[in-house]
Design brief:
By secondary structure, this protein is α/β, with parallel strands linked by helices. It has 2 domains: 193 residues, 2-enoyl-CoA Hydratase, Chain A, domain 1 (Alpha-Beta Complex), CATH 3.90.226; 49 residues, Lyase 2-enoyl-coa Hydratase, Chain  A, domain 2 (Orthogonal Bundle), CATH 1.10.12. Helices cover 45% and strands 16% of the residues. The protein is built from 12 helices and 10 strands. Strand 1 and strand 2 form a beta hairpin. Helix 6 crosses helix 7 and helix 10 runs antiparallel to helix 11. The radius of gyration is 19 Å and the shape is globular. Octanoyl-coenzyme A binds next to helix 2 and strand 6. Could possibly oxidize fatty acids using specific components. One of its GO terms (molecular function) is 3-hydroxyacyl-CoA dehydratase activity. This is enoyl-CoA hydratase. Belongs to the enoyl-CoA hydratase/isomerase family.
């Protein structure tokens, strides 16, 4: 499939999605988010894809929702279309592992999109922010919720109320990103990390992701119960037998995603 606002490329079992509106700093227009959702629908059911890396350009991962498109919308326009949850939340619901590889600006909806991925690897020039308040609105794609869970109330509140940006070093210190890499190594590092994940059993990786995400939705005892049930269910897979037999036989496992 070809798209106008994104590029999808396969690297072995990893799909690399590049947001591709460089002149608008990858502002997330309705067309772009629709295409992203469509691409994810295809990748989710493609058995040859085990992980996804989402990235932008060197200058901008994404500078937010497209302000020029949004500016004249009425309350009824956004309410009736349920702007934006339907398409934007797609990547948060994607069942295979996702990595956001962020260089440059990740602002507003761009920061929210990165936070919808399973984790963020940042280039040393990355800048994160929720500047919606400076244009008379508030984060609308989970920024007040995911940022607060990731970096805590104090820092999230300051960022949402002042609109200030956080550089990569502060973002790593605050727990927003897993690590910082030189900008020219961002894609290769993210792909290498995704390939490592893709070398595991895909269904087991999906269960691991499901279990970690559950921690954000339920109480500790419910989360541990959920984890235990999934842990038990791994013993119904061929890949658990293969993984543990390979360890005993001192050889690398050959997972079959079964
Ligand atoms: N929307 C539309 N166009 C944009 C956006 C944007 N968010 N960001 C940048 N652009 C465009 C600029 O208008 C400019 O276009 P043109 O050349 O035609 O004038 C081009 O990209 C380059 O931008 P700048 O000239 O401004 O580049 P600078 O390097 O000077 O500045 C900045 C870079 C600091 C990133 C600056 O562009 C900026 O502040 N952008 C806006 C950031 C922002 O406020 N983001 C939040 C948007 S609101 C939002 O995301 C709400 C999300 C709610 C949920 C999701 C709903 C969909």
């Amino acid at each position: 499939m070809t798209y106008e606002n994104i590029i999808v490329a396969k690297h072995g079992k990893v799909a690399l999605i590049t947001l591709n509106r460089p002149k608008a700093l990858n502002a997330l227009s309705p067309d772009l988010t629709r295409e992203l959702g469509e691409a994810l629908d295809v990748l989710e059911i493609d058995p040859t894809v085990a992980a996804v890396v989402l990235t932008g350009s060197e200058k901008a991962f994404a500078a937010g929702a497209d302000i020029k498109v949004m500016k004249d919308w009425s309350y009824m326009d956004v309410y009736s279309a349920n702007f934006i949850t339907a398409t934007w939340e797609r990547i948060a619901k994607f069942r295979k592992p996702t990595i956001a590889a962020v260089a440059g600006y990740a602002l507003g909806g761009g920061c929210e999109l990165a936070m919808m991925c399973d984790f963020i690897i940042a280039a040393d020039n990355a800048k994160f922010g929720q500047p919606e308040i400076t244009i008379g609105t508030i984060p609308g794609a989970g920024g007040t919720q995911r940022l607060t869970r990731l970096i805590g109330k104090s820092k999230a509140m300051e960022m949402v109320l002042t609109g200030r940006m956080m550089d990569a070093v502060e973002a790593e210190r605050a727990g927003l990103v897993t690590r910082i890499v030189p900008a020219d190594q961002l894609i290769s590092d993210a792909l290498k990390t995704a390939e490592k994940i893709a070398s595991m059993s895909m269904p087991i990786a999906m269960m691991a992701k499901d279990a970690v995400n559950r921690a954000y939705e339920v109480s500790l005892s419910e989360g541990i119960h959920f984890e235990r049930r999934l842990f038990h269910s791994t013993f119904a897979t061929e890949d658990q037998k293969e993984g543990m037999n390979a360890f005993s036989e001192k050889r690398p496992p050959v997972f079959k995603d079964k």
